[in-house]
Request: fold
Amino acid sequence: MISEAGFVAQLEGVDYAYRDKPVLKGLSLHVSVGKVYGLLGRNGAGKSTTMKLLVGQIIPSTGSVRLFGRSFERGLLARVGASIDGPALYGRLSARDNLRIHADLIGVEKDRVDQMLQVVGLDNTGKAPSSRFSTGMKARLALAIALLGDPDLLILDEPQNGLDPEGIRSLRGLLREFVARGKSVLISSHALGEIEHIADDIGVLQGGSLCYEGPLERLAPDGDLERAYFRLSGESGR
Reply:
């Protein structure tokens, strides 16, 4: 069930500090059902921290976290797939065995493993250990793990890292198909051009909170997200 406002994920008035250093200050964020939300900000702005709050890896100092219209509870994470801070893989195991372990943990049928390997283009990797994979292959395996349970909300931290142009195009299509089924995506990326292609809504983190949250077309009515982002954030751009 989704909240009346149609949000699958919300942060309201969230503060978070790391080693007494404020990271987020009064952050409110709203991910809508059936949308791709692009979270932007410079390195250290708090993008990964924001995502970790939504999956319960860290707890806010103040404020609230809500998933699917309800106050955060661990049971709701069965409806969330996430890849945050890069792939966390069993290096000695193959792509298939990595997925099998996760399938057992979340109670997914084994045929879903082969399906996901095909979806991300790793079905021909055989018994090769994932430690030998390229950065892009590891990113694709992390995506397969996040999608394994057919979640309602997908949270992806810099998923394009290491992907070649074909991999980026494939990711774009996969995410579009995902939201076409009424599901939602929260994605962070430094690749502004790619976010421009896939995002419906944008949030720009600056100074621990959002300096913009809303539709992409309102932020960049001329279709130039890069220029709009640098103008808004005050970072040096072109």
